Amino acid sequence: MTKRIFFIISLTLFFSCEVLEARVMRLKNIFGSVHKIADESSEVLTVIACNHPVKLLNRKAEIGWHKVKVGKHTGFMHQRMLSRRKVSCFQDRYTKFFEKFNLKVEQTYFWGKLYDNYLVGKSEVSSR
Amino acid sequence: MRFWFNRILLFISFLGAFAFYAQSNTNVRGLANTDSKTKKPPETVFQKQAPKDEVLNFDSIKEVIKNDNLSQHLSKTQKKKAEAKKKKEAGEVARYIIPDEGSLYRFLSELWIIKNVSILKWDFKKPDYGIEIYFKDFLEKIGILNLKFKILLVNTPMVTHFALPSNKSEAIFLLSLPFIRTLDLTKLEISLLLLEDLLRIEADYFKNHLVSKEVKALLGTNFHNNPEFKVDPFLGILKKYDDLIYEKGFSFKQQFTVTKKMDRILKGNLSLWNRYYLLIQKIKDLSDTNYLYKHHVKIYPSPELQLNWLKPTEEQK
Q1: Most buried among A58, B264, B298, B300, using CB within 10 Å?
Q2: Minimal CA–CA distance to A49: which of A113, A112, A118?
Q3: Measured in whole angstroms, how far is the alpha carbon of residue B41 from the centre of its chain?
Q4: Is residue B82 within 8 Å of residue B142, measured between CB atoms?
Q5: Are B230 and B142 contacting, i.e. CB atoms less than 8 angstroms apart?
Q6: What ipTM was assigned to the predicted interfaces of this complex?
Q7: Where are the alpha helices (DSSP H) in B39-96?
Q8: If you ran DSSP here, which 8-state letter would residue B55 be given?
Q9: Do B152 and A100 touch (CB under 8 A)?
């Protein structure tokens, strides 16, 4: 019995450490690019679609960028593009409609880059 | 001495118990082995009741099943299965929904930007002017709140400044970097230009130009039962984007309404109003003198008239 309890405790500890070490976030936008370095104009390693999970390698974003691991690629993504929860994506809500547009690879690439190039903001009551 | 005697006694009794346990276990195992080797497995109740050749009569056990609530369990399971199937089918049908007006425009505007990347040249390294921070404060200052905005700097004089329709409480702005540099615009002047664009979006001038009756009828519907559905009408909308942004622009009437609205918004703060007036003067001079920006008057007619509309009338004086 003692052995069993010990085993369960160590297993829980192991998994909680794993979760703390690598948190998973998801892409908020239609497409998003993973960059080689933390810069919008740097080389794009891969483009991912909305809700694709990315593994966070640094828990706190540095100057608005997160170091992430996506598949075999390790790169950087804008903090503002990632969400902790699963999001409602356009291509998931209107799957067949979206598919009808037959986007080309270069279009998905530029769609990912578009979100890097936007200057975004929101006027709010609280910040006045 | 007594202590050691007790200990030895305990040890012997423990050994005895262990030996007894081991013996009983081997007996059981032995019995089990002989059973499996020599004896056949015992017959079940059903095997006893029904010989091999005889077909089992379910009517005879109907009562038993009824008492066991098996029929109720069966109907419950079937109901659950039917519900799951219905849900799955509904999910499949939902995949064919055409977006409604609230979620279509961001997609179309961004698709148009992607398709026009070679003309707009927005994918370039740009300096950090902090325009978005200033514009946010500006909007809050004049009381436009809860507005999400995206500004895309473009590296062409083809489009000087423009707001594209997006989802509810959201706007996408295009802003030409060469235009800002040529006019040497301040952040305040840029914000005034963007505000003007925002008013055009709020007045739905763009949307009214884009959507035909055919498209309007399709919005929010489902094409699950229409295998021949094509997105051509929606691609047609993108051509209308081209038409409005590069060629047609806005009408005099629309410009008058926007200018008058700007006038009303800014009149409360005279320094802002003066800056707006001077900004239009600047744009007028540029479009008069610089060949690259001649088309600006075609898209936003006309700075000269705008100045006249802004000038206080004799009565106001």
Answers
A1: B300
A2: A112
A3: 64
A4: no
A5: no
A6: 0.83
A7: 45-49, 62-67, 70-94
A8: P
A9: no
